[in-house]
Amino acid sequence: MPLLVVGRLTPANVRLVSAARGLGVAARLLPPEAAERRARLGETVLGRIDVLEGLDGVEPGLDSLRLLEAAGFCVLNRADAILAAHDKLETARRLRRHGIPHPRTLHVAPDGGLPEVETPVVLKPRFGSWGADVVRCDTRRELRRAFSRLSRRHWFRLHGILVQELVPPPGSDLRVLVSEGKVVGAVSRVAAPGEWRTNISLGGTRRPAIPSRAARELAGAAAAAVGGDLVGVDLLPTETGYVVLEVNGCVDFTEEYSLPGGDVFDDAVEPLLFPFVAELEQQQALAAEDDPLLVH
Fold this sequence. Notes:
Blueprint: E1 3-7, H1 11-22, E2 27-30, H2 32-38, E3 44-48, H3 62-70, E4 74-76, H4 79-86, H5 88-97, E5 105-108, E6 121-125, E7 135-137, H6 140-150, H7 154-159, E8 161-165, E9 172-179, E10 182-190, E11 205-208, H8 213-226, E12 230-238, E13 241-248, H9 264-273, H10 275-289
Parallel strand pairs: 1-2, 1-3, 3-4
Antiparallel strand pairs: 5-8, 6-7, 6-8, 9-10, 9-12, 10-11, 12-13
Helix pairs in contact: 1-9, 2-3, 3-4, 4-5, 9-10
């Protein structure tokens, strides 16, 4: 079952291809603009399309994935799933539809004015990443100033803005990597001093993490809600349990995500190519947690 990764030349994508080859699978990486004409019959296609750096939407490539799917290719991380994950408004709708805890989210259209909401809230682009233009507003005055400033952004004029309930940040969150419903990696992201956002691009650091059963089940449910085959799910702990903050449709990850005894790239690729094995391993892992005689 050859693997074709469709996306940019990034370290994570290169490592995914290498991991597939290490499992004895022919694999290669192609940019989206070449994938449609150079894909070979029998290849499993993995979509790895990210958001644009200007936060204006999603990188070109979704149409290529749709054409490959229509042509009969097995496409993982299909175009609609990637779009549902990158579009934070659609993510919020799908999570709510599935009863998954997520901060209350309000969409302000490009021609809309500042809504009457209680602070604290978070303003964020509808298509965002790297913590860019995500602003915490603890007072109404901060909200007015931030809204005025962000409303001049190009992405605002295209897609409007999201006003989201602030879940009190504890200074860290849990990013869980889910492949075909199986948790294959995780890290705790710790915010830089003086920063409330945990993004690595903003100075945050990664620390090893082993997700609890509750965290794994919630991350798996969030991935399923958007239809993602390989995604990252950001969880924030609260007094009543975890809340899903975001689902990343083109999650960037490193070896630090590896769970004890594993390699995150091998563990991410295997469920995509051998889903029945992955399902069995997931069931065994959950059963082991409930076995009081098993020494962890």
